[in-house]
Specification:
CATH topology of the largest domain: Rossmann fold
Distance between the termini: 39 Å
Shape: globular
CATH superfamily of the largest domain: Glycogen Phosphorylase B
Number of helices: 16
Order of helices and strands: EHEHEHHHEHEHEHEEHHEEHEHEHEHHH
Largest sheet: 7 strands, parallel
Strand content: 5-15%
CATH architecture of the largest domain: 3-Layer(aba) Sandwich
Number of strands: 13
Length: 457
């Protein structure tokens, strides 16, 4: 599967030179890679001359999320410039660590603390120091060391190409430093697209410890940009209330599913009497993921449904924290590591039903739910009542919502999905429902509105 145009270009739009900064751009395969990919492809489809500034392949390989096949999905008209980036605390190569860090981790044994405790102190001190350069949130991976690399590389590219518009993803937030500096130094119009929140944790709404340092800089950036895109309406509305003077600039531009990765019209496998089904959860399994609630619900479902008892539940994706208990295999549960996103269509074709369970509430919209709804497959869902993903699934057939992240509720949803084979009209309705959430269509509308508001020079 390669790149293809989903929405036809707008031939009447004047061709502009656009720089988009995306540290994690394919072949980066983290969840933050797909919105930037869709954004630059959408600009290219409208006939613009698009340049991407991203981390180089070596850096992305060290970061541990790397899928070389994903570069096939970049529009051939897009120019990608890759710069080596410092990884800082995330760097796995000890030989490149700062001397003070190596001393903290491996120096003479401390008398009153462990090496791990001393190294943790060094990391905290380092983050505080680099926060003065650029305030990445405390408690998450810190990319402030990339500040000077990104801004100097962007200046170099602008002097060579003469951009008309500068945009950036906010993953990591240091990408926004380019928006700030090129806007201020060269008077360029700017915008950004944040699928998260710089000031607070979207899962809990709790502010980051250094939010007081971040807020003035975010206010400055919001004051400068033409538009600021957030990935759902609750996030956008929260920022409008926090920065009322900039409320008109703040837009909700949702995630979507990508036709580059998922061909339309997938159909569920034909169910065979007396044979089990394959349920799959696809995505990263974070340390806070409620694995126990899900697996316990599965076990209970096996006790009440012959179909579930013959079926298997597979987790597909990277797992943070302890490995899966091998004993879960006795209940038809297994796990495999992440696969290339280009291999996802074949995986969906071998899946009878999908499992959706994501932490958080109204501020969180998983990018995975958009792809899920586009498969046409039944979905077993377990989310809190006000989770934003519920709005994406609302009105779609073949959604079996547990209503709570509790084993007994999850068990009922598994049984309901297993006991009723999807009818062709339900599959067709699920595909029709998904059309409104195609990323290329969502972005085409957002970009058209941006083009109307940009003060082109």
């Amino acid at each position: 599967m390669g790149y293809h145009h989903g929405v036809q270009p707008a031939s009447a739009v004047p061709r502009r030179k656009i720089l988009f900064v995306a540290w994690g751009f394919p072949p980066f395969s983290g969840s933050g890679a797909w919105a930037p990919l869709g954004t630059v492809n959408a600009f290219a489809r409208r006939g613009h001359d698009v340049t991407v500034l991203a981390a180089d392949r070596w850096t992305l390989g060290l970061a541990g999320q790397f899928d070389p096949q994903s570069t096939k999905m970049v529009d051939p008209a897009v120019n990608v410039y890759r710069w080596p980036m410092p990884l800082g605390p995330s760097d796995p190569l000890i030989a490149r660590w700062e001397a003070t860090r190596a001393e903290a981790a491996f120096g003479p044994k401390p008398r009153h603390e462990t090496w791990a405790a001393r190294h943790k102190k060094w990391l905290a001190t380092s983050q505080q120091r680099w926060s003065k350069v650029f305030p990445e949130p405390f408690g998450v991976a810190n990319y402030a060391r990339c500040y000077s690399v990104l801004t100097s590389a962007a200046r170099h590219l602008h002097r060579a190409k003469g951009f008309d518009l500068v945009g950036a993803t906010a993953g990591p937030w240091v990408d926004l430093s380019v928006v700030l500096h090129l806007g201020a130094e060269f008077g360029l119009p700017t915008f950004f697209y944040d699928r998260d929140a710089w000031l607070f944790r979207t899962f809990t709404g709790e502010e980051y410890p250094n939010a007081a340092e971040i807020e003035p800089l975010l206010a400055q950036i919001l004051g400068q940009v033409t538009q600021a895109w957030y990935v759902n309406e609750p996030l956008a509305d929260l920022h409008r209330k926090r920065f009322p003077d900039q409320a008109k600039k703040i837009k909700a531009v949702p995630n979507g599913w990508d036709g580059e990765f998922l061909p339309a019209g997938l159909t569920p496998p034909v169910r065979q009497p007396g044979k089990g089904l394959t349920f799959r959860y696809i995505g990263t399994i974070t340390s806070g993921f409620p694995v126990e609630a899900l697996t316990e619900g599965w076990k209970q479902a096996r006790q009440t449904s012959e179909v579930v008892a013959l079926s298997r539940l597979e987790f597909v994706g990277a797992k943070h924290g302890p490995a899966f208990d091998p004993k879960l295999g006795e209940f038809g549960i297994d796990h495999r590591d992440r696969i290339s996103r280009t291999a996802m269509p074949d995986l969906y074709r071998q899946t009878d039903a999908l499992v959706f369970m994501v932490q958080g509430g109204p501020l969180v919209t998983s990018s995975k739910i958009y792809e899920y709804i586009a498969t046409g497959l039944p979905i077993v869902s377990a989310t809190v009542r006000d989770h934003s993903a519920r709005q994406v699934m609302a009105g779609r057939d073949l959604v079996f919502e547990a209503g709570a992240v509790q084993p007994d509720a999850i068990a009922r949803a598994f049984v309901q999905a297993a006991e009723r084979a999807p009818r062709p009209q339900e599959t067709a309705q699920a595909h029709e429902h998904a059309e409104a959430f195609r990323r290329d269509r969502v972005l085409a509308t957002a970009i058209e509105q941006l083009e109307e508001e940009v003060p082109w020079r």
